[in-house]
Input
Amino acid sequence: MADLTILIENVEKPHNLSAILRTCDAVGVLETHAVKDTTKTKAFNSTAQGSQKWVSINDHKNINDAVKYLKSKGFKLYGTNLETSSYDYRTCDFTGPTAFVLGTEKWGLTSKASSLMDQSIFIPMRGMVQSLNVSVAAATLLFEALRQREAEGLIPENGEGLKKDLYNQKIFEWAYPEVADWCKLNNRPYPNLSKDGEIEESLPRQFKLRY
Output
């Protein structure tokens, strides 16, 4: 789903970043966005289970640039924040273009980020701790959006959630990773696939194709 995403602000712990990407992949999110210290390299651990290959992270220099970009694409931004004007996330409508914005593991969103949100939301807590781990919060919100969209019959079932060319590209890379790598190395387009998903072109025999 190209109209559902996550924007994380200064989330840098490998476990949390990996868990967020894995949840995004499970829900069907195509890409995420991040505002972070650009001097640090992204790190993933085994929690990601390879999801970083399928869910891209678009870096932004600052929160202003990130918000401006997402709003230009029609997203409504929901920032997680504990304040009097925040809404219980279960009362919000996430069936339209939705971006969930989450902050650091310890402090949450910055005051600047909070001021740029379309709506502040919170996840009700019944224990003594006031917040969830950022990756757990992301999962809670994403699966609520998925639940709402399923209830309204809005889940793409045949690739209609993405532009056709991008959908075909992702399917090819998943089905034939070795061929996709070879095509990239040789700067050539992916071969066409038949209606049954078979490659309609003779290729070097050393490729072990997964079908």
